């Protein structure tokens, strides 16, 4: 019997972050006393863990929900949070013992039954906007007593399951509050307080202002928040967010500031620019049912032709001023196992001749009409410039005509799962620091893109790499997966990968500790 015990962890946001101190306009941001005010251009989709899987929603969820395992700031190994300890008690059974006396913010007891209910619920609801794809290897969850939770896996020796428990799929909810078969409305979540994280929500005006109060009953790895009250304010544009930071009306601006904004703020002697490890991936998705092409072979040829026509270097230097790097794989460079098969197969620079050959060989008539949808608010204000450049690049080949359209995130996230967009923009922010997190959620069962891609061979390869205990063999399997996806399927075209950046006022502390590979921005580590 193999027994593996979990130790400590840490994670943080891989996005553009700017932090500034208090000023005369502070009260307009919703803060008071010694609290902090956070600003963002991101949007909340749903704060019920079963109903969302996006950065804006996760920002709120990271503050209020506890997990069996979580990441401590600055550490990339999952550590017990609601649990006291976790280990494999059989090759396909991962068992956790909970801390004693846990309670939700409303006073209800948090027991092993609560944990079982939370995982069962995500799997039962199976919301297309939720994190169910992360639980593809979970067969069932048992709660044999009040403090013991046993996760039975479909495949033994899962090298990633401890990390899965620290993702949005592992957030614990109160079984007395959250319905078993549907997503709970945000206002009901706020009223019922069926969560047990470091903070509780004291006031909620969706996508306008959320106010947090430290949860004195929280027991877990993140500890007592350094700042008792935090207000999060939502902005329509990055320009407004930048002005609020510069004027001192907010303490923190998190997601998203443009490269121009960051250049300007970097010259401000009242702030310090902090840079952390990166993991954001920006990419184009193809809906395999509705994209151009009369046959699967023609659709594949179109995808390959697009992959051969994009100038990633131009996007990196001209749109993002080097803040993002060209991406030629699902897995960003720097992660163990990352390779660049899109560069090998489709070139580091646009290749019109190769693109034309793909289309001609498959009998695709040109120019190909592409309806390309992008989002102007969720992935940063520069997305408009990025997709205008992509349209220009594709049309410059003479092989494509691009109809470019945009939709704001809350609507966009619903419509993309309903086959409304044939070709569209998405971005990925990692849940755990492993190459598997760029593969399983993007191309596995119930994948996040919801683009109708599924292949039994790829599913089998995913299982093999996830359950391979030999590190070198596992990395070789991860590399082969990247090659096969890029060569045989091309369900997405990766564009850019980025690192985390924070601009902090001199008196704000804790920023560096929350800029780590875990991609969770924790209010509790920030202070003045």
Automatic annotation (TrEMBL):
Residues 1-20 form the signal peptide. InterPro entries: Peptide/Ni-bd (IPR030678), SBP_5 (IPR039424), SBP_5_dom (IPR000914). It is found in: Cell envelope. Residues 93-446 form the Solute-binding protein family domain. GO terms for biological process: peptide transport. It holds the Pfam family SBP_bac_5. Keywords: Signal, Transport. One of its GO terms (cellular component) is periplasmic space. GO terms for molecular function: peptide transmembrane transporter activity. Belongs to the bacterial solute-binding protein 5 family. This is Oligopeptide-binding protein OppA.
């Amino acid at each position: 019997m193999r027994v593996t015990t979990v130790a400590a962890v840490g994670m943080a946001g891989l996005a553009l972050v700017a932090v500034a101190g208090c000023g005369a306009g502070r009260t307009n941001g919703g803060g008071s006393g010694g609290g902090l005010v956070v600003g963002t251009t991101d949007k909340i989709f749903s704060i019920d863990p079963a109903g969302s899987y996006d950065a804006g929603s996760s920002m709120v969820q990271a503050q209020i929900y506890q997990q069996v395992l979580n990441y401590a700031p600055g550490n990339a190994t999952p550590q017990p949070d609601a649990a006291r300890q976790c280990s494999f008690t059989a090759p396909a059974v991962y068992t956790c013992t909970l801390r004693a006396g846990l309670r939700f913010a409303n006073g209800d007891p948090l027991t092993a039954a609560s944990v079982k209910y939370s995982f069962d619920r995500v799997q039962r609801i199976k919301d297309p906007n939720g994190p169910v794809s992360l639980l593809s290897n979970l067969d069932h969850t048992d709660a044999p007593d009040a403090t013991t939770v046993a996760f039975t896996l479909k495949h033994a020796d899962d090298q990633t399951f401890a990390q899965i428990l620290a993702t949005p799929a592992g957030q614990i909810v109160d079984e007395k509050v959250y319905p078993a078969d549907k997503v709970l409305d945000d206002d009901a979540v706020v009223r019922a307080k069926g969560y047990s994280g470091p903070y509780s929500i004291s006031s909620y005006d969706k996508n306008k202002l959320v106010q947090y109060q430290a949860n004195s009953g929280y027991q877990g790895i993140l500890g007592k928040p350094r700042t008792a009250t935090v207000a999060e304010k939502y902005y329509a544009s990055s320009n407004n967010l930048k002005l609020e930071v510069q004027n001192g009306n907010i303490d923190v601006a998190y997601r998203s500031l443009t490269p121009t904004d960051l250049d300007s703020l970097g010259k401000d002697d009242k702030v310090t620019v902090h840079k952390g490890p990166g993991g954001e991936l920006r990419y184009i998705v193809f809906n395999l049912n509705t994209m151009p092409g009369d046959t699967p072979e023609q659709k594949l040829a179109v995808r390959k032709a697009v992959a051969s026509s994009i100038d990633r270097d131009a996007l990196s230097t001209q749109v993002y001023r080097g803040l993002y790097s060209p991406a030629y794989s699902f897995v960003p460079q720097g992660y163990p196992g990352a390779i660049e098969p899109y560069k090998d197969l489709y070139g580091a620079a646009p290749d019109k001749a190769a693109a034309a050959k793909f289309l001609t060989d498959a009998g695709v008539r040109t120019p190909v009409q592409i309806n390309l949808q992008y989002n102007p608010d969720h992935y940063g204000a520069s997305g408009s410039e990025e997709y205008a450049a992509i349209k220009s690049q594709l049309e410059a080949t003479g092989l494509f005509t691009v109809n470019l359209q945009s939709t704001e995130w809350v609507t966009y996230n619903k419509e993309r799962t309903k086959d409304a967009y044939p070709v569209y923009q998405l971005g990925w922010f990692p849940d755990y620091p492993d190459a598997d997190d760029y593969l399983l959620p993007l191309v596995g069962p119930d994948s996040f893109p919801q683009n109708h891609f599924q292949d039994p061979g790829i599913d089998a390869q995913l299982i093999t790499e996830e359950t391979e205990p030999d590190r070198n063999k596992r990395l070789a399997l991860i590399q082969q997966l990247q090659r096969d996806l890029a060569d045989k399927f091309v369900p997405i075209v990766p564009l850019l990968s980025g690192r985390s950046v924070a601009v902090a006022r001199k008196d704000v502390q804790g920023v560096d500790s929350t800029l780590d590979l875990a991609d969770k921005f924790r209010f509790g580590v920030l202070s003045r």
